[in-house]
Specification:
The structure is a single chain. It contains 6 helices and 5 strands, in the order E-H-H-E-H-E-H-E-E-H-H. With 162 residues, it is an alpha/beta fold. It has one domain: Rossmann fold, CATH 3.40.50.9100. Strand 3, helix 4 and strand 4 form a beta-alpha-beta unit. Helix 2 packs parallel to helix 5. The site of 1,3,4-trihydroxy-5-OXO-cyclohexanecarboxylic acid (DQA) has 10 residues, from loops.
Amino acid sequence: MIPIHVLHGPNLNLLGRREPGIYGTATLDDIERDLRVRAEGLGVALTIRQTNHEGELVGFVQEAGLSGAGILINAAAYTHTSVALRDAIAGSGAVAVEVHLSNVHAREAFRHVSLIAPVCAGIVCGFGPHSYGLGLEALARLLRNRLSPLPSDASSGANSQD
Ligand code: DQA
């Protein structure tokens, strides 16, 4: 099984009732249920966590990265502000994929900047709860190919550092 930690940042515990016009009505439990079904099909062992605290999120990232698990992360508002989070991803050597429910690039200018994007393998945003599923599939594929690279992936140019 491929270990992947799904990390949710601040205010995502309010999904379902939080600004539904932007984030929809799916709750974190709904997202978790969907991810667990997908994970089974992908051969992924999931750990799922949410916190409203920056330091705790940094701790979760370190724990995942140092244990060799991949990270699917919606850092929420800390995406745009947290140097500590970026340093945790880089410092723990984690393979991370950044996800957002909303299309952050179609929103306020302060959401256009992601401090963690440069240390993530890729980003999925704008597909609502489906962003998580797409991110999980991409991350599982990336981690699987690291264990046994396919010739077609090696020549595609995507993630050529892998
Ligand atoms: C979010 C986008 C962030 O800008 C915002 O602060 C969030 C949620 C998203 O999933 O669309 O809390 O990460």
